[in-house]
Design a protein that fits this description.
The protein is an all-alpha fold and 449 residues long. The chain has helices spanning 2-5, 16-52, 56-81, 84-93, 97-123, 125-131, 136-147, 150-168, 172-196, 201-225, 244-272, 278-296, 300-303, 307-327, 340-372, 376-401, 405-429, 433-447.
Amino acid sequence: MEESLIPKLDNRWLTWAAFVEETKRVGYLAGPMVVVTLSQYLLQVISTMMVGHLGVLPLASSAIAISLATVTGFSLLLGMACALETLCGQAYGAQQYRKFGIHTYTAIFCLILVCIPLSVLWLNMGRLLVFIGQDPLISHEAGNFISWLIPALFGYATFQPLIRYFQTQSLITPMLICSCASLIVHIPLCWFLVFKSGLESIGGALAISISNWLNAIFLSLYMWYSPTCTKTRVPITTELFQGFGEFFHFAIPSAVMVCLEWWSFELLIMLSGFLPNPKLETSVLSVCTRVSNELGAGKPQAAHVAVYAAMALAVLETLIVTGTLFTSRHVFGYVYSNEKEVVDYVTTMAPLVCVSVILDSLQGVLSGIARGCGWQHIGAYVNLAAFYLVGIPVAATLAFWLHLRGIGLWIGIQFGAFTQTILLAIVTSCINWEKQASKARERLFQGLQ
């Protein structure tokens, strides 16, 4: 339990051989999780790409719909599911395998309950967008798109707790296989629904919904029938209702920490709708946000294993990724759109996206350290200050007052990301690792009660 939360405190990590060994361990655990995370992002990215080739309006409307779905639904469910990293981690470390399984069922049931009011909100999203002053045509199309994403919401609510169920047991292979299988199915399915079925942009939303449920079904079948899950597989009973209070106690601060950062980036898409030529601005900002999220994802898992090895891998990976992205900046926009105006704008934004990837990777490791120490509340304060007191005000000033438009929005939010990285680095430098080890033992002891 403690080993997964903090790096080793003896002097072995100072040697080159120990550092290399630690890096191998990080890569073994984090590598597959990066693939799993990317496969989830790619479901939305692929749908956005295919819908984007229908025209600027479909790209803009699907982009704002997916952004709203992320802001109001997916980020919330993901953050709440992170509570299982504490609950299931303690139960598994204490060998309370029945409690481990019950925690998983409780989380799934609670998240499905949360999906019900979210679904009502999504059904009325088109009218809400018009009410707050968004372009009526984009609002109508976005409302239709997000309505067809409602099944994806329930699939996501089932899938995320299952991810934590397997991750806590270090059962990485089934997640990797299931995620890749869903992604392989998603590509031809999305192509057929968008271009051949007559559904057009709505087909992209339907493909995401189907693929999310495939992920959940694949992992559920593996959990129920694989011998590797025998000790943690328990029957569904009314015991799951007894853990509601405990689950929400951990789920709420976890959700706040995750959502504050996600919301700030997705707010860029909303603000772009108020700029001149909102179709172009929304299209370009959505492409930049998707690329940044996709390429910068997956680092928090590594931070739980070893801080220094994770940071080294993060730096190496960002150098490779940003170099590739910058080199291909003149052609990358064509992946999302055939419109030359969109492609040229994406080319202009590419250097800023590279900066975003670097900051996102570094803060991902630092955020993982904070969560590993049980400091979700500190992470929430850091994200609140960095993005809502610095990033978003600077972005709005540059975009609307200095008339830098979409570029101003993106520069501003990177000010927030830089502030976040600095603050988290300061927090990390102040960690007393011996004290954190003692707290880890206390949490494990409480799990045995």
